[in-house]
Amino acid sequence: MIDTNSVLVEWLKTTATSLYTLVSTRVYCSSLPPGFTNSQAALEVMRRGGRSKLEHAEHAASFQIKCFGGTSSHAEAEAVYRALYDRLQNKSGVDVTSGNIMASEEETIGQSLTDPDTKWPFVLSFWRVTMRPKTA
């Protein structure tokens, strides 16, 4: 079975993208690391379900992705969300070391929120990413 988390995280960490310019390799699955202070932009990625077609080894995973801007500004979190959107929306045929992204689509438009405990602004978004293991 494909490790859907690894495939998506690897794709999001690809260099030379506007998303990488903002978050670099700060793409965390499935929670922010201990000591995270929102002083740099980051993504928190969590698979929340999905469906599989085992006969084809395809998995259409649903991911929750939180976009943190690295400041107390909602505008910075929104900038990370826009870069994420540009990276994922309607993409297909993407090969990474750990698999193949067959299709990617936003499930609902991102929502600006504030964490009630930390008071950090973030954008909450949900994505359907269909993938399969890398074929030789």
Account of the protein in words:
With 136 residues, the chain is α+β, with helices and mostly antiparallel strands. It is 22% helix and 42% strand. It has three helices and six strands; from the N terminus they run H-H-E-E-E-H-E-E-E. A six-stranded mixed beta sheet has the order 1-2-3-6-5-4. The protein is elongated, with a radius of gyration of 15 Å. The two termini are 16 Å apart.
Characteristic terms for this protein:
136 residues, alpha+beta, elongated
- Kindly report how far apart the N and C termini lie: 16 Å
The total count of helices amounts to 3
- Average pLDDT for all residues: 94
Largest sheet: 6 strands, mixed
**Strand arrangement across the biggest beta sheet:** 1-2-3-6-5-4
The number of E-state strands comes to 6
State which percent range the strand residues make up.
35-45%
What's the gist of this structure?
With 136 residues, this protein is of the alpha+beta class. It is built from 3 helices and 6 strands, in the order ααβββαβββ.
Secondary-structure topology with pairs:
Layout (H helix, E strand, L loop, with lengths): L3 H9 L5 H6 L3 E3 L12 E12 L4 E11 L5 H15 L5 E3 L2 E16 L6 E12 L4
Parallel strand pairs: 1-2
Antiparallel strand pairs: 2-3, 3-6, 4-5, 5-6
